[in-house]
Amino acid sequence: MKSKKIIIIAIAVNLAILAVGLWYYLSIPVDVSIEIDSRDYCPGDVVIIKIKTSRELKESTLVFNSQKTKFFETGKNDDSRLYRGLIAVPLNCKPGENALEIIIKFPIVGTRRFNRTVNIKSRKFKRTHIASLSRTNKIMKTLAEESRVARQLRSKITPENLREGRFIIPVKGRFSSPYGQVRTYGKRRRKGRHRGTDISAPKGTKIKAANNGVVSMAAKFRGIGNTILVDHGQGIQSIYMHLDSIDVKRTDTVNKGGIIGTVGSTGQSTGPHLHWGVYVNNVAVDPMQFTEKDIP
Q1: Quick one: 139 and 111 in the same domain?
Q2: How far is 243 from 255, CA to CA, in rounded Å?
Q3: What is the number of structural domains in the chain?
Q4: Among the residues of the chain, which ranges form H helices?
Q5: How far apart are CA 179 and CA 170, in angstroms?
Q6: Residue that terminates a domain, selected from 120, 135, 152
Q7: pLDDT digit string (tens) for 106-151?
């Protein structure tokens, strides 16, 4: 009987401690500050959103232009926790005010929603006609199938940040075709958009990994040619196309500056060059911005 009383008292004490702890937790105000790195953006840009909060997030969702991603914790500052989210402004994003929705969920205290807007400015892109490449129905079907394979691999989000600092330009050469270029092909003048940057260089020129990461694809295709996809973590991936040789295999870890292959002209190509692209949340963005500024 005595031992039963002791157990009941112990349970009561523990419940009281839990109640006090819960009261204290709930009494602390939920402070959330949101910082967006700029006000104006263009198609191809990356938007950086930072959150500073007094509590750990249980879940988070960032919604913009049909994209849905999450925030990743980047560290602590005094009694605050710091988080960062990235969104990509796609090539077809309409100019003007675009809605940005932030949904964050805290343990016990529930969900908070925040609405912001970012201003998308119009951007002029170069135009070119490539008469030597014909986009037949067969080729278009091949390219669509290959793109579907790559898109599925790019949809995987690695929670760890694998990259370190700014990206490097992966090959020495002449910049021949910029990101976003509007292209027409052959006599039928099928239209396409260039979703990376082309760098012309002699066949066999060594290609370096733009940053640390893990190889998620190393394959030979008929349309896009020999291709490598590197996962840099947290929704950022880089792609290297039209290679002559592939010197890495899937699941290999690569370091920034490490040799991954050589320049070629495989697939739909007019001559030796590297097509280099960067994707954020599976959306192609201008890769050069990663070499020009720090994207945490």
Answers
A1: no
A2: 19
A3: 2
A4: 2-27, 137-154, 289-292
A5: 15
A6: 120
A7: 988 789 999 999 999 999 999 999 988 888 889 889 999 999 999 9
